[in-house]
Amino acid sequence: MSTNRTLCLASRGVRPLGLTAALMVILALFQPGAAQACAVCYGDPSSPASIGLTWAITALGVLVVLVLTGVVGFFVHMNRKAAALERAQPGEWSMENC
Q1: Beta strands per DSSP E along 6-95
Q2: CB 97 within 8 A of CB 91
Q3: What pLDDT score was predicted for residue 90?
Q4: DSSP E strands, 1-98
Q5: Residue 42 · residue 49 · CB < 8 Å
Q6: Cα separation of 13 and 97, whole Å?
Q7: Is the distance from CB of 50 to CB of 40 less than 8 angstroms?
Q8: How far from chain centre, in Å, is Cα 20?
Q9: Which residues, in sequence order, are CB contacts of 42 under 8 Å at separation 6+?
Q10: How confident is the model at residue 59 (pLDDT cuts 50, 70, 90)?
Q11: Is the pLDDT of residue 62 over 90?
């Protein structure tokens, strides 16, 4: 059954993943210069590109923290609101009535 699927994919121009990965490894072996690190990863840590990358990573980290804080704040707010509603009207909105 696997052979039929491979033949079906090959007839539509889709290569199996193993063949594509093998071709990429072979091409990388013949062009080692293409695999060298860029100036940000390999070069001077005080270069403008490295400093900019550091600030970009910091800004994205702060953004993630802010969004997660908002999500947690929303659920805390909803929990407090549900507790206040339960105190105002006991029994009417409890889970036992569901």
Answers
A1: none
A2: yes
A3: 64
A4: none
A5: no
A6: 58
A7: yes
A8: 24
A9: 36
A10: very high
A11: yes
